Amino acid sequence: MGGELRFSEFFSHGAGLTTSLDALLHCEHSGIQHICVVQSPVFGRMLLLDGMVMLTEWDEFIYHEMLVHPALFLLPSPRRVLVIGGGDGGTVREVLRHPSIEHVDLVEIDPRVIAVAQSYFPTVAAGFSDPRVHLHHADGAEFVRSAPSGFYDAVFVDSTDPTGIAESLFGEAFYSECQRVLHATGVLALQSESPLHPVYCQTLPRVHRLLRPLFRHVASYLAPIPTYPTGIWSFTLASRHYHPLEDFSPTNAQQRMECLSGKLRYYTAELHRAAFALPGFVQELISEGLAQPAP
Amino acid sequence: MGGELRFSEFFSHGAGLTTSLDALLHCEHSGIQHICVVQSPVFGRMLLLDGMVMLTEWDEFIYHEMLVHPALFLLPSPRRVLVIGGGDGGTVREVLRHPSIEHVDLVEIDPRVIAVAQSYFPTVAAGFSDPRVHLHHADGAEFVRSAPSGFYDAVFVDSTDPTGIAESLFGEAFYSECQRVLHATGVLALQSESPLHPVYCQTLPRVHRLLRPLFRHVASYLAPIPTYPTGIWSFTLASRHYHPLEDFSPTNAQQRMECLSGKLRYYTAELHRAAFALPGFVQELISEGLAQPAP
Fold first, then answer.
1. CATH class of B60-290
2. What's the number of CA atoms in the CB half-sphere (13 Å) around residue B194?
């Protein structure tokens, strides 16, 4: 007899991820959102925002490597990077692995996410003390509006789902500002939700509809993220200059991977190309969405 | 107030998949295993064997397409196929899409799985009435021992986890018989569990260790299967003659895809190549396993 501590996240109609918990390590309302840290026997520590998994120690490497490295290995020598969201620090950690990086702006709306990540996820929030990193407690959409034109080589949108505080990070005006603050050869990379999610699967075609008028090249790729809704996740790259595949050199990426600080566990030069090969149903989701009139 | 019908499958320490249920449609003990069919609002009908998800209407297309088509599109004109396990019929359905197929032996140890699939999953068990299909209610390992040498162009091992009734389907003796019943240019394809599973991740390196002495070419590939443990799944191809990538012609596959009966939703010729690009941690899992002495 006895109780059990358990966390479950339902992405639709009571379906989703579940895990027993060893401990509830932290729980607060930051004024913006509920922030919890729990300990799972399988997933390790988990960061929950408003009851949704933001990361787990077990599989965060896949998400962060796949958000960052396809864009950065496409660029010959990325120097200046903007990260919108991503207060846990995982995206910044991956960015800093590239020795060419000189300047990283991280814009996180909720300073408590950063503080909690620093306390409970030191290996994720590893880069915040790096002198190249500049923290900004601000709304991402507002920050890009006041940022200088053509400044960044890469912009990463490491947002929560396209609802609530993150809604403005999936809009036309925001993408237009991202394009403006990027150098002419810069790259925008964003998480574009799960193509199997009953509702948010529409994010992927919507992102294409909004980005294609702004960027010459827009392409999406997938990675498995077991603890995210449906376990399969899409990312989208956009650039006015570089084609994510035709301008990608596996040989160059291979050489540069030797010079990264730390070792990657998911991304490889071969996987870069492979991740852009979309399953039939995902290709259809995008092309059907593009055929529809804008909402 | 009130109760709720719910199914959860834990792959380790209370972690896994959960869903509310609309209905419990069928439940029996076949003498071999518990067979249940439940209705989930998100996953549709689900087939459970001994409490574990065998398939759901929602994502079975990924598993079945990815078990079958990489092997069959590698062969120029597959005619004779052996399916071990797979009593739900999904693998046979995909095999029969190829117009060159003349003869399919399906060996399922539990006839009740076939009967339940025919009643509750008619779109999955679609091929059992096809005159090319021959059902055998037998133990897979025993069936291959008495099958003629060099007869099959492809053998598919569509098994449950490597424990209990399926344990013999992951052994050296079984693989050796599979090699014997295959034509010299034939291909063996099997599900090799999740590379992220805390225990069964060892299946993938073990399969390589056992198959490499028997086949010149052994290569694994991945696909996301959201309702399987960890949501990421590995498959392994083995052939004495064909290299799964070097001997694969995307142009030929593209042409043949036009002549398939029915439309594929996951597999594409581009994805064939892409699926074999393994993440770093999976490459390491395999090479570390190969470096270990045989168990």
1. alpha beta
2. 18
pLDDT at B186 over 80: yes
Residue of B nearest to A273 (CA): B274
Residue A60 CA, chain-centre distance (Å), reads 10
In chain B, residues with a C-beta closer than 8 Å to the C-beta of A273 are 274, 277
Beta carbons of B280 and A270 less than 8 Å apart:
no
Q: Do A42 and B273 touch (CB under 8 A)?
A: no
Q: Which member of B14, B18, B264 has the closest CB to residue A280?
A: B264
**Residue A180 Cα, gap to closest chain B Cα (Å):** 34
Query: Is A161 a residue whose pLDDT tops 90?
Result: no
Whose tokens are 């003796």? That residue is B173
Backbone angles phi, psi at B74, to 5 degrees: -75, -30
Chain B nearest C-alpha distance from A136 (Å): 33
Q: pLDDT tens digit string along A219-230? A: 999 999 999 999
Residue numbers in A near B230 (CB within 8 A) = 226, 231
Write down the pLDDT at residue B291: 85
- For B236-256, how does the pLDDT look when each residue is reduced to its tens digit (9 = 90+)? 999 999 999 999 999 999 999
Rounded CA-CA distance B276/B269 in Å is: 12
User: What pairing do the DSSP bridges indicate for beta strands A34-40 and A80-85?
Assistant: unpaired
CATH number of A60-291: 3.40.50.150
- Residue B125, min C-alpha distance to chain A (Å): 22
A284 contact partners, CB below 8 Å, separation of at least 6: none
Q: What residues pair up with A232 in beta bridges, in sequence order?
A: A224
Residue in B closest to A274 by C-alpha: B274
All structural domains of chain A with their residue ranges:
6-56, 60-291
Q: Residue A279 is nearest to which of B13, B196, B266, comparing CB atoms?
A: B266
Active-site positions of B? Answer: 158
- Its ipTM equals 0.95
Choose among A280, A206, A270, A198: nearest CA to A236.
A206
**Catalytic (active site) residue A158:** yes
Cα torsion at B63, B67, B72, B75 (round to 10°)? 150
Same CATH topology for B6-56 and B60-290: the answer is no
Cβ–Cβ below 8 Å for B283 and A267: no
Architecture of domain B6-56: Roll (2.30)
Ordered DSSP codes for A51-117: TEEEEETTTHHHHHHHHHHHHHHHSSS--EEEEEE-TTSHHHHHHHTSTT--EEEEE-S-HHHHHHH
pLDDT band at A293 (very low <50, low <70, confident <90, very high): low
pLDDT in tens, B132-154: 999 999 999 999 999 999 999 99
Closest in B12, B41, B274 to A42, CB measured? B12
How many other C-beta atoms can be found within 10 angstroms of the C-beta atom of residue B77?
Answer: 11
